[in-house]
Amino acid sequence: MKTILAKVDLRQSESAEVIRTAAKILQEGGLVAFPTETVYGLGGNGLDGAACEKIYIAKGRPSDNPLILHISEFEELNAIVREISPAAQKLMDAFWPGPLTMVFPKADIVPLKATGGLDTVAVRFPSHPVARAIIKAAGLPIAAPSANSSGKPSPTRASHVEFDLNGKIDMIVDGGAAEWGLESTIVDVSGDVPMILRPGAVTKEMMEEVVGRVEIDPAILTKPAADLKPKAPGMKYTHYSPKAEVVLVKGERQAVADEINRLAALDMSNGKKTGVMATEETKDLYHADIILSLGSRDRPEQIGANLFKLLRKFDFLGAEKVYSEVFSEEGEGMAIMNRLNKAAGYQMIEAAKASDS
Ligand code: TXA
Ligand code: MG
Question: How far apart are the CA of 123 and the centre of ligand 2, in A?
């Protein structure tokens, strides 16, 4: 299959043609990758089981891992869900359009192919103007998982999508870098108390201000037991992982640097290409084959926006082992640490203080 690659800038009039082409492909059952404010999505007609099937095949995604339906108007929600709880209504008034996905009881019109066989459906109303323009022009709810090959870090740039899916999908719409860089928060609003299934830009604290109590699926920050069934089926799969083995090292700044340098020296002496995921404040403390900075520790939004790009870059540079610093789990930090823990398969070492040894 030849994949159409098209740049889009909505300030330019040629963009209307790109949006029309994308919409037509979606209406005809094809697949189009497009930017959102979180990560790039791989879109298909969410009401067409055959189009959803194509999404699973292109990504190599297990078919029990449900898709998120994307809408471009509040009214579109009524057709695809069976019930909107008062809490869901408040959350959507506060955070849509934006990086929040909500899980509702599904309406019959939504095919089980889209929901991985579940009787609930995840819905998001993205804020990105290109995503909204494409969904609106298609006139359909658009099923869109992250546009990566299953298991790889989510794509934050069109070039990432091209690397994973070129030749497997009909079109890639390039709207520049995804601003937030981590996938949306998922909150289940089908029960009494909203429960966060995946942390993201909309934090627990932000939602609690709007609806009072919000719970967190315990599988989010701790290594799930082998028999635990996470409520977001996608959270059970290895994710975001580069080819390299990733190890997190926590502790006081200098102790972390000393420990990483010691371990990296050992790996390198064994002939392993070794990398460090550092920050602006710490990058000069390290000795390794590849040292990349996530950005400033004072700006979690930079760390989040760069994380997947850097994981992909370590792959590209052939890293076999990557050590990473850890971050606070406060606020948006929870999303960062959730993705880092998954990339590392929950391997975390505590660096001893110099005075302890
Ligand atoms: O930011 C995002 O949400 C991006 C952009 C493209 O919108 N999309 C995204 O989709 O991250 P995906 O498919 O990579 O992740 C969807 C997650 C999976 O973990 C899946 O298991 C969960 O949502 N999910 C989908 N439907 C669900 C449902 N009915 N109940 C519980 N979890 C669900
Ligand atoms: Mg994904």
Answer: 14
Question: Closest Cα to atom 30, ligand 1: which residue?
Answer: 232
Domain spans in the chain, listed from the N-terminal domain onward: 4-183, 245-356
Query: Contact at 8 Å (CB) between 275 and 321?
Result: yes
pLDDT digits (tens, 9 = 90+) for 111-154: 999 999 999 999 999 999 999 999 999 999 999 999 999 989 99
**pLDDT tens digits, one per residue of 239-256:** 667 889 999 999 999 999
Long-range contact set of residues 285-291: C-beta below 8 Å, sequence gap at least 24: 285/253, 285/254, 285/257, 285/261, 286/257, 286/260, 286/261, 287/261, 288/260, 288/261, 288/264, 288/323, 289/319, 290/314, 290/317, 290/319
> Which of the four CATH numbers 1.10.8.100, 3.40.50.1220, 3.40.50.11030, 3.40.50.720 does domain 245-356 have?
3.40.50.11030
CA of 255 to the centre of ligand 2 (A): 34
Q: Do domains 4-183 and 245-356 have the same CATH topology?
A: no
Give the C-alpha separation, 233 to 301, whole Å: 26
CA of 331 to the centre of ligand 1 (A): 20
* 124 Cα–ligand 1 center, Å: 9
Instruction: Name which residue sits closest to atom 19 of ligand 1, judged by CA.
Output: 234
Residues in the ligand 1 pocket, defined by CB under 6 Å: 36, 38-39, 41, 65-68, 101, 103, 115, 118, 120-122, 124, 126, 144-146, 183-184, 186, 197-198, 231-235
Q: Pick from 36, 61, 68 the residue to mutate for probing ligand 1's pocket: most ligand atoms within 8 Å of its CB.
A: 68
The two tokens of residue 71 are 């809408």
- CATH hierarchy code of domain 4-183: 3.90.870.10
Atom 12 in ligand 1: residue holding the nearest Cα: 145
Nearest by Cα to 95 from 208, 190, 179, 178: 208
pTM (predicted TM-score): 0.95
Where is 80: in which H helix or E strand? helix 77-80
